[in-house]
């Protein structure tokens, strides 16, 4: 109730004593609680992306053939350092290559028209193949 009417002992008019109505306050607090309960799990799912700085020397791997470059063509075909690799053999081939390397860095290059699903799948397979650092190239590699 918003107010209560008390009995008047001395006067003939009833006295009105104000009381706070807390029902709307409780409703608002419960709605906010539900909103925060729904939003909180969504806040923990984040993906951090570190983009390389625009530097001519940092974007291109070293000129000696020690670096490993995984390329996804516009057709979805995969190649390692220019050699065509079927998708089924990619994990095994990367495991053998990374076993001989200490840095476990793979440079990743995808064509502009490459299917998104193929590029993400290639990155997932590379991570399963023992790659610790996946460096995404922002400029074309001269072969």
Description:
The chain has 143 residues and is of the alpha/beta class. The N and C termini lie far apart (81 Å). The protein folds into 2 domains: 3-43, no CATH class; 56-136, Nucleotidyltransferase, domain 5 (2-Layer Sandwich). The strands form 2 sheets. It has a 5-stranded mixed β-sheet with strand order 5-4-3-6-7, covered by helices on one side. Strands 1-2 form a two-stranded antiparallel ribbon. It has 4 helices and 7 strands.
Strand content: 15-25%
How would you characterize the largest beta sheet? 5 strands, mixed
Unreliable stretches: none
Rg over CA atoms:
32 Å
What count of helical segments does DSSP give? 4
What value does the average pLDDT take?
81
Quickly give the structural class: alpha/beta
**Could you name the CATH topology of the largest domain?**
Nucleotidyltransferase, domain 5
**Strand ordering within the main sheet:** 5-4-3-6-7
Shape: rod-shaped
Order of helices and strands: EEHHEEEHEHE
């Amino acid at each position: 109730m918003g107010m209560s009417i008390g009995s008047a002992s001395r006067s003939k008019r009833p006295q009105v004593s104000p009381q706070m109505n807390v029902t709307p306050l409780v409703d608002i607090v419960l709605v906010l609680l539900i909103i925060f309960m729904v939003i909180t799990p969504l806040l923990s799912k984040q993906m951090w992306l570190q983009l390389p700085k625009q530097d001519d020397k940092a974007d291109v791997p070293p000129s000696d053939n020690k670096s490993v470059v995984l390329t996804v063509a516009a057709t979805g075909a995969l190649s390692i350092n220019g050699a065509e690799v079927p998708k089924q053999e990619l994990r095994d081939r990367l495991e053998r290559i990374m076993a001989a390397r200490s840095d476990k860095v793979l440079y990743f290059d995808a064509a502009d028209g490459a299917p998104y699903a193929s590029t993400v799948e290639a990155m997932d397979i590379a991570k399963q193949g023992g790659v610790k650092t996946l460096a995404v190239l922002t400029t074309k590699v001269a072969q």
